[in-house]
What does this fold into?
Amino acid sequence: MFVDHARIFVRGGDGGNGIVAFRREKYVPMGGPAGGDGGRGGNVIFVADEGLNTLMDFRYNRHFKAPRGQHGQGKNMHGAGGEDLLVKVPVGTVIKDDDNGEVLADLVESGQQVIVARGGRGGRGNARFSTARNRAPSISENGEPGEERWVRLELKLLADVGLVGFPNAGKSTFISRISAARPKIADYPFTTLVPNLGVVVTPAHDSFVVADIPGLIEGAHLGSGLGHDFLRHIERTRVLLFVLDVAETEGRDCREDYHILRRELENFNPDLALRPYLIVANKMDIPGAEDNLPKLQSEFGDKVYPISAVTSQGVDHLIQKTYQILSTLPRETFIQGEEPVIHRFEEEEEPFSIEMVAGVYEVKGKRIEKLVAMTNFGTEDGVRRFQHIVQKMGLEEALRKKGIKPGDTVRIMELEFDYSE
It folds into this structure.
């Protein structure tokens, strides 16, 4: 089954916890702190794999979480890092942040990788907090939580040539004639429900890839018919072939069909109007086609190539002309996203924000939430360090400006405490 879009959840592994430990060896008095650091969590990495051609697997598995790092140990032994989680996706997959639609990466080459959720760093053991004033600290950090987000995957087929036409224009018959592709062919609208790819070999043994896009209708760019689902697959093609029913078996004017198709493409993506194109006047074997062909040629001249996909009339000449056009175009000219767009994971400028929720002062923000997650509240030194950091952040002053009074409740994630001067 062909699936070209999916929504999944990814989470990097949490960092391992640092620990509090001291050297207690014989003949080593006051051995000092020896708590090791935790290992970093694994990253979630998407890898483009040319062996895949659908996002079907993501219909059944929507959650991907990398392993966490191991905890630190005594004798200054650090925990091992968590293994990265490699997730294979088809070549041509666009990865977007589901919250804001930002493109995280566009994977257009086999083996191309991008980190979509970074693992958290390991927490520091108490050996890291030793100073001249405090030679036996009982402070350690918990591991940093891994990044998490929902992402949208959109597959855009990588093909050299895109076949565009109304239902029953003969695109499927044409691609089955010029390649080894065997799409379903029948005499009713929307026979083709998924895009099909075919490799075409020229008489000179050159080759190119053709994509048969399911039939478009007027209003496709607004979601009518199947166009809304599959128009994206045309964006990467370098040459467009407009396949028209020149015999007008459906009762439509073939010239008007062309103008409607072009408008739909331009409304979907104006860049498509700049692509080289040819007009394929198909069904020349059917009576009436010979009478309609001149009106196409009078308007579009040498752009028109009469063929019969059923009898192969004119097909070889069309293939040679198509390859001739392709050979003059640099491959990177029309392929979007040749350089992957990689999202930079940056901290918020503001360390926190404060809102009143049901009489509780709720504090939010990546920096302060990370501080809470990484603080070991099981030791007095850990609590003292937390209080010192939030004071430097300006939290107490900000709470006063909000009108907080002694005894009021403050909540940061799952942490709740009563405010006191």
Q: What stands out?
A: The chain has three domains: 5-155, 161-327, 353-418. The first strand starts at residue 5 and ends at 11.
